[in-house]
Specification:
Elements: E1 6-15, E2 18-25, E3 40-44, H1 55-63, E4 67-72, H2 85-95, H3 98-115, E5 124-129, H4 131-142, E6 149-153, H5 161-164, E7 176-178, E8 190-192, H6 193-205, E9 215-221, H7 229-237, E10 245-250, H8 269-280
Parallel strand pairs: 3-4, 3-5, 5-6, 6-9, 9-10
Antiparallel strand pairs: 1-2, 2-4, 7-8
Length: about 280
């Protein structure tokens, strides 16, 4: 289990009742903080996705000799304030703002760059799933991030219109909308309506005309129930330099395959991992 390979976890305060976390994943035999000369990968999880459930995506790179650092966005995993985990998570999710997500990634990227200072800038990479992909793009549009490549798995750049309707439900902002994510991957029983507003505000604010400063790779499923492959391709076509982007659209046998980090439900998982690894080891 990847959870057993966590050698270090740190919390970083953002403001009152809000923090983010970073978990380091190293092979048990490695005590020096360095697996090999291959490099460092920073992972960003999705909305209401348990960071530890990214293990299926982490393990191939861990076994290949990369150091893997995993962000715990506020209200997810161990990123909460206080002794009461459930209460701490809910307070964080209900008070989380757009800039908190962007600043989390900016600070996490700066921290690992200093932590692994002996590595060349081209040996740092980012892999973001869903919200993690969206936050990665939003943050890189503000400031050039220290990554040789960035990889976006089912990124929430361009969700279907019906997916955005959830923010208009006649519910209070603090009310939880039940999550349809399978339990092993689900961080909390639901997501506050206010956090969906934050998510879609990020979607609206991301400008495809702003360069990200490195190669960007997008991995999408043709049967994704939340993200539109067509709109995402149009997003890339509007970028200032389309040669900066590569889009891979998989055609799995199953429907509803947004959860691309689960090899049991997404049959293109191994191919996706192979493509990412080949691109970060060029």
């Amino acid at each position: 289990m990847t959870q057993e390979l966590v050698s270090d976890f740190q919390k970083f305060p953002i403001r009152k009742n809000l923090c983010f976390g970073l978990g380091s994943y190293l092979k048990p035999t490695e005590k020096s903080g360095r697996n090999s000369d291959k490099g460092v990968i920073l992972f960003g999880h999705g909305l209401n996705i348990e960071p530890a459930s990214m293990k299926f995506l982490i393990e191939p790179f861990l076994n290949a000799g990369f150091i893997c650092e995993v962000i715990h966005f506020p209200g997810h995993g161990r990123a909460y304030v206080g002794e009461d985990e459930r209460k701490g998570r809910m307070i964080a999710m209900r008070t989380l703002l757009q800039e908190d997500l962007e600043n989390t990634l900016l600070r996490a990227a700066a921290y690992i760059r200093k932590k692994y200072v002996s590595y060349d800038s081209q040996q740092f990479h980012y892999i973001g799933f869903s919200l993690g992909g969206l936050v990665g793009l939003a943050a890189s549009c503000q400031l050039a991030l220290p990554f040789g490549t960035m990889h976006f798995c089912a990124p929430a750049f361009r969700p279907y219109t019906y997916a955005k309707l959830v923010q208009y439900l006649p519910w209070k902002e603090s009310w939880l909308l039940p999550s349809g994510t399978p339990r092993p991957f689900r961080a909390n029983i639901g997501t506050p309506k206010s956090l969906y507003r934050v998510l879609f505000r990020l979607v609206d604010d991301v400008d495809p005309k702003l360069p990200i400063g490195c190669r960007g790779y997008i991995y999408l499923s043709a049967t994704d129930e939340l993200i539109s492959p067509k709109a995402t391709q149009q997003f890339v076509d509007n970028a200032p330099n389309t040669n900066q982007w590569t889009v891979d659209i998989f055609k799995p046998k199953k429907m509803k395959t947004h959860l691309m980090i689960d090899p049991k439900t997404f049959d293109g998982f191994d191919k996706m991992v192979g493509l990412i690894e080949s691109r970060i080891t060029l």
